[in-house]
Model the fold of this input.
Amino acid sequence: MVKDEVQNEVVNEEKQAPALNGMAILLLNCLLTLAACIGIIYYVLMAVTYRPASILMLTASIVYLLIVMPLLFAGLKILKPNEAYVLTIFGKYYGTLRGPGYFFVNPFATATKPGDDGHAEGGLNLELVLKNANQGETAKTVRHVNKKISLKAMTLNNDKQKINDLMGNPIEIGIVVIWRVVNTAKAVFSVDNYSEFLSIQCDSALRNIVRLYPYDLPGDDDEGSLRGSSQEVADKLKVAIQDKVHVAGLEVIEARITHLAYAPEIAAAMLQRQQAAAIIDARAAIVKGAVDMVEMALAQLRNNGIVELDEERKAAMVSNLLVVLCGNKDAQPIVNSGSIY
Done:
């Protein structure tokens, strides 16, 4: 039991794989290959004479060409910037090869990546289909799987989801997540497929966060809603996703909402509600402005001594001004040629 826990802890910790200069090994291998070929040619030319040294040289040359040379070539690895190899030897974790360059590692070390069947995200799947011109059937399929682990910042854009918000209204929401692999050992050995694992955890975290907020709030202050507090929601999404994918050796750089809308079945009703709220807010602003203008007009008439109005005439004037200022149509003027009394 204790031994298994220690072994799992070692596997989950990334370590650097021992490696030599690949270019030096390549040149040495080429020189030794050339020497082995010369040895075989020399033995053929000197075949008329029997010498134990010639037999030994021939045997060494053949062994090198058939066994040693392929092994040396098999241990050569090329890495570009932000790429890595996770190497195993006979099922045990050997180490991670990082950094750009040309390296030589143990020839028996094999690169491992989730989804070696070609279905993992980031794998290079090349399918060469040769079709029979007469029968139209597939004759051959060739598939190549890229076993390099990309350390670049990658983008995950899941499909839109239909989720109920805090008020129970169905909404459509989509997010984009920027992420990268920081621990290759965990990414390969802790989960079956780290890209699919991330996608599932993003969907789960999104549902848990969205149901804590309403789509929007009435009034001008829309803070505390999905529409008004997008940055707060994004920060909570990032933290929630990071907590879930830490076991896979992934780092969430950023999480953002890319799509937010009511579901089609309630979109029309919610649009009418928003329109009604906008009309009410506009009317309230118009009435407030009209009252201020009427008050200002009465104050200027009184202060300037232009006309003295009793309470009844003030009420009539206020009524007429409010009708003119709050009406949807232009007022039609009426000229009174007599006394206002």
